[in-house]
């Protein structure tokens, strides 16, 4: 910060009750009333320099005591006292912090060169142009003080000149920055970094009022000289400086509460920040957008602001990490810790954008990679929130079901989330367990997870039987695929000439010209029909367990209904093509019986 020292006489002003005067042998003949303070002064040092006081005292003789009221002087009594001390020749120190009130008061008192050469205004203007506008922090500090005298500062051109100076320095290439600046990023040290960072200006600008900050940011954006990411970084720094930290709201709940004025001010800041975010994708991070959305819910901002934040966050949802999503709920009615509704709102907006994509874009490998990464992200997030003791099972199911099948080629991560939830919620009723496990597709589990699921005593028996069924079905397919091929299909000695033939359904197929035997022809024709008939016999229209498998399972040599809670005996029937492992089910039933 730069300073200017004017005057040489010592400060002899003193206060007595509500009166300010100075030590002097000469009796005072001028009284100045400013609000609740009276100044007892002298005409001879003030009138030659103050054109306003000259005019107001012109109707009085030189010997008369004059009383003048200056209640509307800009800057109040402090600014007037600076001007009075200048007139007396008393030493004053001018800086960026007191320049604005002093300059406005001097203009009000008409302390121009036309009144007396070398007057106060001329000295203040010289200091403003040569010191304040040439400095980085001085310009910002001066601009901050204009908030107390906005009209005067605007009319006198102080605001415009400070903003122009700040913008000019902000657009300066980092290699040419020679002035001091504030940069306190974690892990950054000027001793180890000799080059100036690209965002060197963001922290100092965050000290400004939101209206002045917006004015500068919009002016910088209009030049198109800085990348959108730098603008986004400035918005991020400003938000961290002024907006509440939602991650600490739960800890401070009940101890302190924001006043209505503070809430309204934060709403204004948030809405301005959202309106200033560049339209370019990636100008701000997904984590920053979700943080703003969380704060928006806490402050209760306009629905339009929330909708815009959800839209912007959904555009970058595929860039998110689990840490970005784990925000605490700010609702006073929620017992659970994590704000799962916030994540679901963004996910649904993301999926709505995907549905509106043209078919050509939706079929690309990039899109498939993005949608599957999203599914994996949600399953990992579910594993995190499943540890919340107060998380309702309905919210967990709702978010899990919002993920489309195409985004979940395998269900291992979803199984882990379900298992974590069941482990931490022992009091979950049987019906809720079934609802939770119904979202699991046992066909999409890896062999390792299926092995774990069969031994998992927390899962409903119905789910375990499903896992067993699909495990054995896959084992049957693997066994069938390793059967030796009949010799007539591997006739390497014969010369095979491709030819086109029609099958029993009229479809064309390419095969060897060599004629098939009667037995082979019969096998190829009848076998698919038999398999199809068996498949229909097993499959149910509601995509539940195969009908016959759902009715019974072998337990310790007895036949027990799968969904029967009382374990009623049922007649044993042979399952076509499926053999359940009696030992696995017997072990599970025994452990269940011990629990009861």
TrEMBL record:
Pathway: Protein modification; protein ubiquitination. Residues 529-545 have a biased composition (Basic and acidic residues). Gene3D superfamilies: Potassium Channel Kv1.1, Chain A. It comes from Quillaja saponaria. The keyword Membrane does not apply. Keywords: Ubl conjugation pathway. Residues 199-474 form the NPH3 domain. Pfam families: NPH3. SUPFAM superfamilies: POZ domain (SSF54695). The keyword Membrane does not apply. InterPro entries: NPH3/RPT2-like, NPH3_dom, SKP1/BTB/POZ_sf. Residues 475-545 are annotated as: Disordered. It comes from the Eukaryota. This is BTB/POZ domain-containing protein. Belongs to the NPH3 family. Residues 497-508 have a biased composition (Polar residues).
